[in-house]
Amino acid sequence: MTRILAIESSCDETAVAITEDGKLLANVVATQISVHEKYGGVMPEIASRLHAENITVCLTEALRQAKCKLEDIDAFAVTRGPGLIGCLHVGLQAAKTLAMLYKKPLIPVHHLAGHIYANQYVGEFKYPMLCVVVSGGNTELVIMKGELDFEIIGETLDDAVGECYDKVARVLGLPYPGGLPIDQHAKLGQPVYPIHRPKMPHDTYNFSYSGIKTQVINMVNTMKMKGEVVNIDDMACSFQRVAVGMITDRAMRAAKNYGVKQIVLAGGVSANSYLRDQMQKKVKGTSIELIIPPLWCTTDNAAMIAKVAEKLYVRKVFAPLTLGVDPNWRLDEWDKFE
Fold first, then answer.
1. Model-level pTM greater than 0.85?
2. Which residue of 107, 246, 247, 251 shows the fewest CB atoms closer than 10 Å?
3. Domains in the chain and their CATH numbers?
């Protein structure tokens, strides 16, 4: 019997989860959205302070739900990166302290690996597999030819898609985070505004969202200066068609070229209903299986960190207590942390 306690604190959610031989016993999440929404985005200093306040509460509640004590834990896992440096430090120091006190292994987990492996709460992976990683801080296409074998074949050259959603929502006067309100308004509109994809080589799997964001901001500001009314539903629809279309087109081209058996969606933007619908339509009639994570797995949580930690525990991928955080840790370097 192996019990793993995992901690996630990379951005604005403080989370603690406990698993026992792969079974999820507890998954506690304390979100900070209500605090940061007044600023239109995450304030790193405030987020770090709130993590420090919430970590003990989440830890206590997770142990209560799992009906176990810290002495019963076999290993402590933690998100080492990527993320906000101050936020990552809070989780890491908590995990290192517990590992030292109870003389148990410390397992460093890559945040994006967690989002990918959250899909194993839905089904088993089939390789080769394409991971579509889309979130507030990351936009990547990742090929997996086996367990924990990550090859990044495409990534954003500037803004992440989730960040772009938030900034477009802000200029449209919609609440933070921007993903859900834009998705909701887009369902009521038509793609009538001329928003264009950036010109990029046809053989690339990389993304660029800075230009799309700028187009929307400039268009909205110009219309306001002219006294014209911006139809929020139509603007949201026009933006979302282009933003999501870039993802689905590149994903399907990569899936075909790499001969994948399965595609998995991962990250906060995987909760987007239009992305889910479009991916289902794209794979229909093909031999490719699509795994869509449950909504509770799309936002940051510690259950996904625990799922990766289970694999690392078997491989004895343990870190020394001198471990530091890495806000820019690359997914294809998940095992390089010393």
1. yes
2. 246
3. 3-116+298-333 (3.30.420.40), 123-292 (3.30.420.40)
